[in-house]
Amino acid sequence: MKTFLGVIVGLTVLAVVLLVLALFAGTFDRSGAEGRAELQRERLERNLRPAGAVRQDGDAMPIALAGDTADDDDNDVIRTGSEVNESACMACHAAGVMDAPVTGDEGAWASLMEEKGLDELVENAINGIRGMPPRGGDRSLSDQEVRNAVIYMLEESGVDAGEDEET
Fold it and tell me: Rounded distance, CA 132 to CA 98, Å?
C-alpha cells in the first residue's frame, strides 16, 4: 500500500511539473504569434481601405491613399524586383497557376518578350491580364515596382530585359 501511494504521489508531482513546464514553454512562442497577428491586422486594414485614388494617362499610383498618414516612411522606398516577386508575383509565377509563365522558364518568357516587348509586359502587369489581377493583387505597388518585378522575372528566366532594374 505504501508503494502504491508513493507511485500515485510521484505521478501527481510529475504531472504538475510537466504542466508548469508546458505553460512556461508556451510563453516563448507568444511574440511570434503576436507578430503574425499584427501582420495579419495590417494586411486586413490595407485591404479594407477605400480605393479612392484616381489615375490618368499612366500616372504613377498616388502614394497617399485614404487612411494613410503623411509621416509614413515606408511609402518612400521603392522595392526591388526580387522583393516584389516574393511578396506578390511568386504566388502564381512559381508554380504556373492559371497558365502564368513560370519564373525560370526561358522559352515562355522569351516568347512573351518577343511577342509583346517589355513595355507591354509591364502594362499587362500593371492593369492585369486574363486571370492575373492588376499589380499582382497588391494595389500598393507603384508602376516602377511592378516594372522592377517584370524585369526581375525576365532576367531570372534567362531573358535580357534590355534595361537594368531601378531601385
Answer: 8
Domains of the chain and any CATH numbers: 79-167 (1.10.760.10)
pLDDT tens for 28-54 read: 555 666 777 788 888 877 777 766 656
The pTM for the full model equals 0.53
